[in-house]
């Protein structure tokens, strides 16, 4: 029997989040990122598939109402059980509060803002502890806050508790220099906007994901590119993405970025979150 695309899959938010992780890495081409056609030297397509499946237990915790920090740390620990290292840390940072909001029937900018604003100091401690499970490329902390360097992991707990910093506070402090933190602080604005483009697009969802990635890449410097290569390179990446007319042309850019070691991973995080929202809103597969 032949059927058409299905919008009502009967999946809960956790399963849609896991599916979003899979569809994000399957979206091709996403210049500079792992996709169906391209591996990086140390990160392979299979690592992302394994990381997506490994994160499922933490995503289920989020759906079941666990605290954001506990669900996130569990998801990251599960994600880390593959040989590539950090595959989806940033994706999970966005997905966990979105899953919580969706499970409460409030998947909207206001709904997810309520979730992130309700986070606690314990959530912040769990977030920092998650850095002990996998190496994450991050910039240096502000000069006046070395005790809050996320690379300290659990070693930062005393500073977090002394300053009574919730996880939302941590994200708000980081928003100026980190795009994922800006999503937390700004109602997940880019996430929901990109979700609309995926919903309204045509063709396979993996193509829509790739187009959404390219659109996001033209908007602002990618945080991971800035961290690894500097602001000037990140702005050049934006210009080169803006010059791409379609996915066929993006294939050449993808090869160039991989050869140059340019990996706009933060943009991929946001398109993954957008894919989750689109799935929850019924994008057909």
UniProtKB/TrEMBL annotation:
Highest taxon of the lineage: Archaea
GO molecular function, one term: ATP binding
PANTHER family in the record: CITG FAMILY PROTEIN
Designated name of the protein: Triphosphoribosyl-dephospho-CoA synthase
Taxonomic source organism: Haloferax marinum
